[in-house]
Design a protein that fits this description.
With 270 residues, the protein is mainly β. The chain has one helix and 17 strands. It has one domain: Peptidase G1 (Jelly Rolls).
Length: 270
């Protein structure tokens, strides 16, 4: 069963107009830094860094990650996140590759994620499509309903109070939906809300799995706490996914004029 991690940041977040220093990281004015070492956050050995965010309202922060691409809102306390998308078709060749598409609360600056979405896995030349939810660090749970390329999805994660969340996903093309109420088992931070494309886990070495070539995906109707995900006061972070050699695998466009839509494109050529 696949796992979906908190964001693995490859470098500190960058505010707009700030260059990344070669071979290192660039400090951001008014940025926060990790309070504890990654090993203390996650003693199981899956390292993830807490990404600092800009305190300058209206300045878009950017980050690079080895497993996430998309947008995360990082200011305030979050009670809901929602978005819609069309399930992309993957081009599958040799070997196995994976791509997950989801909405969630937490994970950008905390070690839990409450999330639901869809996925395409390339098992050799065969593309397998399905939907799932996960209360990380608990295991993901797959729904048995049919999912096909081109299906229209809407998903919402809502905090119900305490440790409880409602995870809703609707495949209007196939005519099914699920509302799953689940408990995290610990107190959630609720310090971020995301709309994400992810290369999930885990390879035999415990690392990020190869990202499937899904071409592109457009998210629409993305709202956090009932506001457009691009609302400046929510401090949206634009995240790009890079591989272990620092090459771009997946980048996402600027937000649309309404602040609720963007497109992520698979661009790896090697």
């Amino acid at each position: 069963m696949l796992r979906r991690w908190p964001i693995l940041l490859a470098a500190l977040a960058l505010s707009a107009g700030t260059a990344l220093a070669a071979g290192g990281t660039t400090a951001v004015a008014n940025a926060t830094t990790p309070a504890v070492a990654p090993s203390a956050i996650n003693p199981g050995g899956i390292a993830h860094l807490i990404g600092p965010t800009s305190d300058v309202t209206g300045v878009l922060t950017q980050a690079e990650s080895t497993n996430w691409a998309g947008y995360a809102d990082t200011a305030g306390t979050y009670t809901s996140i929602t978005a819609s998308w069309v399930q992309p078709a993957a081009t599958c060749g040799s070997g196995d590759q994976y791509a997950a598409f989801w909405v969630g609360i937490d994970g950008y600056s905390s070690s839990t994620v409450e999330q639901t979405g869809s996925e395409v896995d390339c098992i050799g030349k065969t593309a397998e499509y399905y939907a799932w939810y996960e209360m990380y660090p608990g295991p993901s749970e797959n729904y048995s309903n049919t999912v096909k390329a081109g299906d229209d999805f809407t998903a919402t994660v809502t905090w119900l109070g305490g440790e409880k969340f409602s995870l809703y996903i609707d495949d209007s093309t196939e005519g099914w939906s699920h509302t799953t109420d689940a408990s995290l088992g610990s107190t959630p931070a609720r310090t971020s809300a995301e709309v994400i494309v992810e290369a999930p886990c885990c390879s035999e070495s415990g690392g990020v799995l190869p990202l499937a070539d899904f071409h592109s995906i457009t998210f629409t109707g993305a709202y956090a706490n009932g506001k457009p995900i691009g609302t400046p006061s929510l401090d949206p972070v634009q995240i790009s996914l890079i591989d272990s050699t620092q090459k771009d695998e997946l980048t996402c466009s600027a937000l649309g004029d309404d602040g609720t839509s963007f497109t992520c494109t698979w661009i790896r050529t090697s």
